[in-house]
UniProtKB/TrEMBL annotation, chain A:
Listed GO CC annotations: plasma membrane
GO molecular function terms attached to this record: transmembrane transporter activity
Keyword Translocase: no
Organism lineage string: Bacteria, Bacillati, Actinomycetota, Actinomycetes, Micrococcales
Location, primary (coarse class): membrane
The species this protein was found in: Cellulomonas cellasea DSM 20118
Name of the protein in its database record: ABC transporter permease
Family matches, as CDD domains: TM_PBP1_LivH_like
Superkingdom, natural source: Bacteria
GO BP, sorted A to Z: amino acid transport
Membrane topology: Multi-pass membrane protein
TrEMBL record, chain B:
InterPro entries documented for this protein: ABC_urea-bd_UrtA, Leu_Ile_Val-bd, Peripla_BP_I
PANTHER family (UniProt xref): ALIPHATIC AMIDASE EXPRESSION-REGULATING PROTEIN (PTHR47628:SF1), PTHR47628
GO biological process, one term: amino acid transport
Protein name: ABC transporter substrate-binding protein
Signal peptide residues on this chain, from the entry's feature table: none
UniProt cross-references to Pfam families, sorted A to Z: Peripla_BP_5
Length: 294, 411
């Protein structure tokens, strides 16, 4: 029974990590259709932001919270620069975007290597996040609870922004029918830029959160980018709800498979499940019904 | 992405047995007229072949630094047989095929007297046929999975009976009876764990779990859950690279600790501690043959010279020390043979000793490994590793574990 609960939590936690990694991508890829291979590197930039902030602010707790904000800005600004300089020139040319952003990813990795050195760096977790809390009779790591919380806050905030704010309405209008939105007086260019800023910013936040779990090195992003795309594709392009469901489903599946087999086999099984699922439902879990998109 | 991940941690690979006896040291000069090593002048060429680019560059650059230091010292001291060493440096680029090409170039067109380098077992396996067919010499400085002994390679890192077996000896001595194995999913950890399983069976230790994570795996919650549920009282860790960070953070966060479930790691050295974070790994154990903190006059000189050349903040580690030692061992062999000739050096190799930073090491002429003292270390709060236990004496290399009854049938 213990094992069941702890695996259930492991699955949810893994799901929250996947969700954080995929959430920004759900915006830039899902809503805008831009295949941004440098998304992982924005996460990496977020992680290094946490490292830099920690070297400025000694208190690990304060610096983590500050990092979450600064990480959002750093990721967002990097995204904004990428959008304005490169991506905006190749909308509707997905293959070119893929190659160019992959190149950018390599440049960013090498830049991190040059600035921070090739060996990994370390971010200390604050004392209030170390160790485990008792929950339903089993020890749950505080860091993982915290990441779950960050993921939930990010999704909620993003959903509220999309639903309630003028910016959200503009984004949704642009996604649903770009031409019509433009005719209605919406500056789709400005909307694109803001969407990219927010999506990349969330990648930065994800990077900060991940410093609690793993290593901080130049290639941090590459470990997550494939999984992030999987989540967005399986969830259905253009819908946050799909991304959320897909992230937690994949997390739970991975944890289940990994418990009953091995980590390597679990990864294989997960891919098999996704491929099979996309055969049946190529549009993903939740699909957006629209007249303008193919 | 997958290819990148694979390249990340190939410290060990393969297990093809090369019979030391068949083409044995002394008789191999037959068609070696091809040797073009020029010893007529007052200098002699040697080759350094390490990855200076690609994923392995982080580790291999440190080995190159140590080799450069050794060459500089030897030259300042009058060279080898009165000849200055002229180093030809090449970049293996973290690619086994590049290692093979560059080895061929160093031997055939640069005409070097010996080559020093290599890190991953796949790079060594790729270079082996080159050195055997050209009848040239390679000095390989990294601990590996054993089961190999080429007459053309000298192995100055540990083989399994000098690192993994002593690691298990230590756990046994500490009264540990339930050991959990965790490793990256490739050949070195799987070979190591095969040996550990055989050892455990013969020594009344129960292996309560054996888990492998794909290279670059970032989420260890399930594996650590299994570890926690297994009731293990010790962990033997053969994880590679970044995975260690995720593993140790998870291990600490679920409330496991050194007091109850210590972890013995075989691929974490001084260089890696900083990236994992001392606070996550303080007090954990490692199995190597050298630490920066080893107390010996030779080590004091080595560490001081290294820091003077490369900076106070640099650390020295086992593979670096093994590389530094390898150049001096080659010097010893050449001086004993009074010749740079490969066959003469092979003949002279047996019994050559060097006062290395790790202690006195001796070359075994039969399998071309060296006798080394095994050290179990404890990671300190300052990020350095301190010797906790050491084998009574230097352990004779036994790459095929022929001297261990329980290992029968493994190789």
């Amino acid at each position: 029974m213990d094992a069941l609960f702890s695996q259930l939590f492991a699955g949810l936690s893994l799901g929250s990590v996947l969700l954080l990694a995929a959430l920004g991508l759900a915006l830039t890829f899902g809503q805008m259709g831009v295949i941004n291979m440098a998304h992982g590197e924005f996460m990496m930039a977020g992680a290094y932001t946490a490292y830099v902030v920690q070297s400025l602010i000694a208190d690990a707790g304060v610096s983590l919270l500050v990092s979450l904000v600064v990480g959002f800005l750093v990721g967002g600004l990097l995204g904004l620069v990428l959008e304005v300089t490169l991506v905006s020139r190749m909308y509707r040319r997905p293959l070119d975007t893929l190659l160019v952003t992959w190149g950018v990813a390599l440049v960013l990795q090498q830049a991190a290597r040059d600035i921070f050195g090739a060996p990994n760096v370390d971010v200390r977790a604050p004392a209030w996040l170390s160790g485990a809390v008792e929950l339903f009779g089993l020890g749950v790591p505080r860091t993982r609870l915290f990441i779950l919380l960050v993921a939930v806050v990010c999704v909620t905030a993003l959903a509220l922004v999309l639903k309630l704010t003028p910016l959200g309405r503009r984004i949704r209008a642009t996604v649903q029918n770009r031409d019509l939105a433009e005719t209605s007086g919406i500056s789709t260019r400005a909307t694109d830029r803001l969407t990219f800023f927010v999506g990349s910013g969330i990648a930065g936040v994800a990077g900060v959160a991940l410093t609690l779990l793993g290593s901080i090195g130049p290639t941090l992003g590459t470990a997550y980018i494939v999984d992030a795309f999987l989540v967005v594709v399986a969830g259905g392009i253009g819908q946050l709800k799909g991304t959320v469901i897909a992230a937690f489903s994949l997390g739970l599946l991975q944890a289940t498979f990994e418990y009953s087999t091995t980590a390597s086999i679990a990864k294989v099984l997960l891919f098999v499940v996704i491929v099979a699922f996309l055969q049946v439902r190529p549009q993903g879990l939740v699909s957006l019904r629209t007249r303008s998109l193919a | 992405m997958a290819a990148l991940a694979v390249a990340l941690g190939l410290t060990g690979c393969g297990g093809a047995r090369t019979d030391a006896g068949s083409s044995g040291g002394s008789t191999s000069s037959g068609d070696a007229a091809a040797s073009c090593v020029d010893t007529s002048g007052d200098s002699v060429k040697i080759g350094f072949l390490n990855s200076l680019s690609g994923t392995m560059a982080i580790s291999e650059q440190t080995v190159r630094d140590a080799l450069d230091l050794a060459a500089e010292e030897i030259n300042a001291d009058g060279g080898v047989l009165g000849k200055q060493l002229e180093v030809v440096g090449e970049d293996g680029a973290s690619e086994p095929t590049v290692f093979a090409e560059k080895a061929e170039k160093l031997v055939s067109s640069d005409c070097v007297a010996a080559v020093f380098g290599g890190w991953t077992s796949s790079s060594r396996k790729a270079m082996l046929p080159v050195f055997e067919s050209k009848d040239a010499l390679l000095f390989y400085p990294v601990q590996y999975e054993g089961l190999e002994a080429s007459p053309n390679i000298f192995y100055t890192g540990a083989t399994t009976n000098q690192q993994i077996v002593p690691g298990m000896d230590y756990l046994k001595e500490q009264g540990k009876t339930k050991v959990f194995l965790v490793g990256s999913d490739y050949v070195f950890p799987r070979t190591a764990n095969k040996i550990i399983n055989a050892y455990a069976e013969a020594n009344g230790i129960e292996i309560v779990g054996e888990e492998y994570a794909p290279l670059g795996h970032t989420d260890f919650s399930t594996i650590v859950n299994k570890l926690k549920a297994s009731g293990a009282d010790a962990v033997f860790n053969t994880l590679n690279g970044d995975s260690n960070v995720a593993f140790f953070k998870e291990y600490k966060n679920v409330g496991l600790g050194v007091d109850t479930t210590p972890v013995v790691s075989v691929s974490i050295a001084e260089e890696e501690v900083g990236g994992i974070g001392v606070e996550n790994i303080e007090g954990q154990l490692t199995a190597w043959n050298y630490y920066q903190t080893v107390e010996s006059p030779a080590n004091t000189t080595f560490v001081e010279a290294f820091k003077a050349k490369y900076g106070e903040d640099r650390v020295t580690s086992d593979p670096m020390e093994a590389a530094y030692t390898s150049l001096y061992l080659w010097k010893g062999m050449v001086e004993k043979a009074e010749s740079f000739d490969v066959a003469a050096v092979q003949d002279a190799a047996d019994g050559v000793t060097f006062e290395a930073p790790e202690g006195t090491v001796t070359v075994n002429g039969e399998n071309h490994h060296i006798a080394k003292t095994a050290l179990i270390g404890k990671i300190g709060a300052d990020g350095l590793i301190y010797t906790e236990w050491s084998s009574d004496e230097a352990i004779e290399p036994d790459p095929f574990l022929e001297g261990y009854d329980w290992a029968e049938g493994l190789s």
